[in-house]
């Protein structure tokens, strides 16, 4: 068995792992590179293999850095099964269509503004390509043994990151290999904890937070305090939130605070069609959650859903106190940019960030203390209070990763640390070696390993 690391090396994004077994080839995850331009350009480079050689694609979960290259893979000739959980299939129906729509919009905008060197600028892939990819999905139950051929099988094991997320366990003859994908939190308020794994021959683990620990202050308490201070001074709380995962955690906290009468009874709006769809999908996959059916219903009911654009515009015209959750989580696009433009100049309001803010995004600029921002061609002063809750991540920190690894009854022969910035991956590697005594490696892009 040979593994080739084709993404999530030296970076968090672009997860792709090519596995070759005699005459069989499978790809575990098929993600887009995101972030700085030099990374995004990799999406336009041909893969170092012909997609037609693949017998299957296996997905750990639905996030675009793990699935967003699928439409291009299919466009390039792949036409075999895509295996994942039912929850991942449901979320991919939203996320891949949205990603394709954004690709088309970016190309359209580049042609209108004439800032692309290509004439005309073309999208990386289209909505039609995304639809063709979705036709290949074959959802599977958790823990079911999926036989790819006589000596090769796959299992999808609950990972606790988002709805549908799974570890991918490969069994080839007498050799086993496990991909963590994105490892969930031990005490996530919504998702069940990651499944304990006792033994595997080879391990590929993520390291997003391999060099840090999450803040200890309970995020629900921080959220309560920020809301109460803001509403008390007559302001509104504007929350950029990732549509899948983060929005649902925040809705859960808000439903609990509302039930406890711990925050004022002001309107709460979820203004993101994708987040609304993801919230409804959450309700359909209660088996993934630590919430009861009643708690899940409360989460779904706490906010008024805003689908129509004109309803979203009306929110910005009404300056009475309210709470708005909207995407994107980094304020790099979507309706949240309009809300920031409308509310940022009033010192009574609060802009509350609840997730990672990548370099060069609007969210990163605001969090860094920039006093003026440009949003849709207008210069906007940032007079609103700027706050951040840094403990709502759905990724395990290094303490939680090490705690999960310590449950293994014997060490893997080799552990590969991926899906992290260089400092995070190297830091986790050193911690695993020091605390567990395991053989640990940080692979480079394109590196091949015989297992």
Describe it.
Residues 247-366 form the Beta-Casp domain. This is Metallo-beta lactamase family transporter protein. It is an enzyme of class 3 (hydrolase). By secondary structure, the protein is an alpha/beta fold. The chain has two domains: 2-212 and 394-450, Ribonuclease Z/Hydroxyacylglutathione hydrolase-like (Metallo-beta-lactamase, Chain A, 4-Layer Sandwich), CATH 3.60.15; 219-388, Rossmann fold, CATH 3.40.50. Helix content is 32%, strand content 21%. It contains 14 helices and 22 strands. The protein has helices spanning 37-40, 64-67, 70-75, 86-113, 127-134, 219-232, 246-259, 273-284, 293-301, 309-317, 335-343, 362-367, 398-405, 422-436; strands at 2-5, 16-21, 24-30, 56-58, 82-85, 137-140, 146-149, 152-158, 166-172, 175-179, 202-205, 237-240, 268-271, 304-305, 323-326, 350-353, 372-375, 378-381, 385-388, 414-417, 440-441, 448-450. The strands form four sheets. A seven-stranded mixed sheet has the order 6-5-4-3-2-1-22. The chain has a seven-stranded mixed sheet with strand order 7-8-9-10-11-20-21, with helices on one face. A six-stranded parallel sheet has the order 14-13-15-12-16-19, sandwiched between helices. The longest helix has 28 residues, at 86-113. The model has no long low-confidence stretch (mean pLDDT 95).
